[in-house]
Each structure stands twice: as structure tokens, then as C-alpha cells.
Amino acid sequence: MTTTENAEVQALRHQYEELAELAGSLAHEIKNPLSVIHMNIDLLSEDLTDIDSPIRRRSLDKVEIIRQQCERMDALLRDFLRYARLSRIDLVPGNLNDQVDRVLRAYRAQADAAGIDIQRYLDPDLPAILLHSDSLQAALMNLVKNAIEAMPQGGQLWARTTSTLDGVALELIDTGSGVDDTTLMHMFEPFYSTKEGGSGLGLPTARKIIEAHGGQISLQSEVGRGTKFVLEFPVPRRLAG
Description:
Blueprint: H1 3-49, H2 56-84, E1 92-94, H3 96-106, H4 108-113, E2 116-122, E3 129-131, H5 133-149, E4 155-163, E5 167-174, H6 181-186, H7 202-212, E6 216-222, E7 226-234, H8 237-240
Parallel strand pairs: 2-4
Antiparallel strand pairs: 1-3, 4-5, 5-7, 6-7
Helix pairs in contact: 1-2, 3-5, 5-7
């Protein structure tokens, strides 16, 4: 990369960081009046419980709708703040298998209840990578959660780690409903969601986290057969030995 190209990259990065900070500040400003609305909705609901009137139930139903929408907006803002402010994270040596195992154990009860069989094929000789445990687990949890939700009638989820020429890879394969080609093209776009009430920021945030680790994520899917995510991470030379 030439000096000019490097300067352009740095300028773009600075602009992105400024925009992310501005977006985060705006989201915080929205959260404040939203909290006031939510609090007053709770107070209004309490007041209505003391009223004996034919319109009471209709009013309470409307209040509940407003409360639900406030909660949805609050969740959307939390997801957005997580997405907008994720740029650089501190990485330390760690084992990908440990991160995968923790996430799968966290979802074991939910998977069992849904009739989903989780199979692990974790390479015991996997080299260490540089990672940030909390954020990487958050990304993996999003992927596993999506896989489980795609198999409401049960199925199988395979998690496999392997060494590659340039680092390590994780494959997450489910036998869920899958997605069509049109949906596949938009899966990592912010605010794109096929779920009712979804923020559309789960997968974009997961990709951002993985890219912040120097890695990359790809996926394949077929309607009625399932979805396969492949995550690849580099192994620094100082850790390779």
C-alpha cells in the first residue's frame, strides 16, 4: 500500500469512527425520552387499573401495545449501539474450541427442549488465535441462536473446527429451514431481517466482530435443507509455533 493509499484509508477510518460516535450519541439521546415514555406508560397502566369503566380494557390493550413497541425500540437501540461502536477490540491469545464449547453448553438446554442434536468435532490440536472472548462468544451465540430457531421441529447442528493453510476455521451446519438466494444476498446487511420484530443487526454485528478478529465469515444455504456458516481466523506467526 502506497503512502497516499494509506492516508486515504486512515481518513476513511477516521470518518467512520466519527460517524459511529455520532450515531451512538444520537441513539443515547433517543433512549432518554424513550425511558420517560416507558415510565409514564407504566404509571398510566397503574392508574387505569383503578378505573371501573367499559373503556378500561380497550385502554389497557392500547397501553400494552405502546409498552411492547417501547421495549422493541429499546432492544433495537441496544443492538444498534453494539453494532455502531464496534470497531477495534483488544485481542489476546486464546483457543477457539473453548469459545465454541462455552456457547454450545449455554444453548444445550434450549437445543434439547427443541429436539436438536448438537454434534461437536473440535480439533484437539487447533492452534491458538488472537481473540476477544466476550465479543467472539456474542457472535457465536447469535449464529447458534439463529440455527436453533431455524429448526423448530428439531434437527441437527454440527460444529467443526479445523486447521487451514492460513489459520483455523469453524463450520456451523444446521438442518433447518434454510433461506432462498434473494434472502442470502442480504443476510449481512444492517436492518435486514426476515423475523417479525427482529432488528436485522445480529448477523451484521457478528460479521463485524469476526472481521475485527482479522477473520471472515461466509455462508451457504438451501431452502428445506439447512445453512452452513464458515468462520475463518488467522493464526499469527508468533503463535503458530
